[in-house]
């Protein structure tokens, strides 16, 4: 099969990779109609997360089940399925509590590399959710978004307790931040402030439900949020970047008693204890337990209530994955879809 492999900073190649096979009896093999590049793939792509050997890339996926292992009971060949970037058994106490991304048997799909024509999915019965039928082509981008960025934005909004009567601020205008805006809208938030200074992203944020746009960042961004909320700060803030500046911007934009949902993969963030103590805010975040939300997200997409696939503003054949990465690295594209 063809698949994307990272050789070093800014060196992605599409090459022949071995076809995946069933290794564990709980595995499934899927054929992907399309895959995509994640903002988090840019960390190794830029060399900020160094790699020690050529590394297959990708952790987002949807597809048709080709084959299942002997212990797989619910997932069947021919079904169209969506899964998350962590495989999970969906039965252990952590999964049962809704934190499948920290399942005691969790396996990171990034180690499998789903920017490819086929993928092996561990713990298929726990990991995968089947759609009601084979989707029409126009639903595939939105289902693919559910695999990671929509699920992550949704978790950020839930962790920040976005809901009726709440003012929600979103730090970060990548795909996850934009979809946190969509999630906050679906969860019934009254006012949704998107923090972005890129015009096309502001437009998409408005389309997804943002009521206000703040272009300032850092301390100036915090001051603007305070101005807009009677000096109190937002009830709910979603952090979708993962840097020191964005995390502090999120905490400082939240009112005492409010909630921060942080879903940007943390890189070098250190929280000052004394400021945290007096901020008196709730903090919940981490790798999103996308599996918790998948049945609901698939239902909303299937019934055309939401179109998270709009975050894909560049579509290329898998063979041109390198250009897909470059466009995101240079912020010419929000998110790249790769047709297999
Ligand atoms: Zn589990």
Distance between the termini: 10 Å
Number of strands: 19
* Major β-sheet profile: 6 strands, parallel
Number of helices: 12
Report the uncertain regions: none
User: Roughly what is the average pLDDT, rounded to an integer?
Assistant: 97
**Class by alpha and beta content:** alpha/beta
- Associated small molecules: zinc ion
Question: Hey, roughly how much beta strand do the residues contain?
Answer: 15-25%
Radius of gyration: 19 Å
- Strand arrangement in the largest pleated sheet: 14-13-12-15-16-17
The gross shape turns out to be globular
List the helices and strands and how they pair.
Blueprint: E1 2-8, E2 11-16, E3 28-31, E4 34-36, H1 42-45, E5 55-56, E6 62-68, E7 80-82, E8 86-87, H2 93-96, E9 107-108, E10 118-121, H3 124-127, E11 129-130, H4 140-146, H5 149-159, E12 167-171, H6 175-186, E13 191-195, H7 199-208, E14 212-214, H8 218-228, E15 234-239, H9 244-252, E16 254-262, H10 273-279, E17 282-285, H11 290-302, E18 314-317, H12 321-329, E19 336-339
Parallel strand pairs: 12-13, 12-15, 13-14, 15-16, 16-17, 18-19
Antiparallel strand pairs: 1-2, 1-5, 3-6, 3-10, 4-19, 6-7, 7-11, 8-9
The structure holds zinc ion.
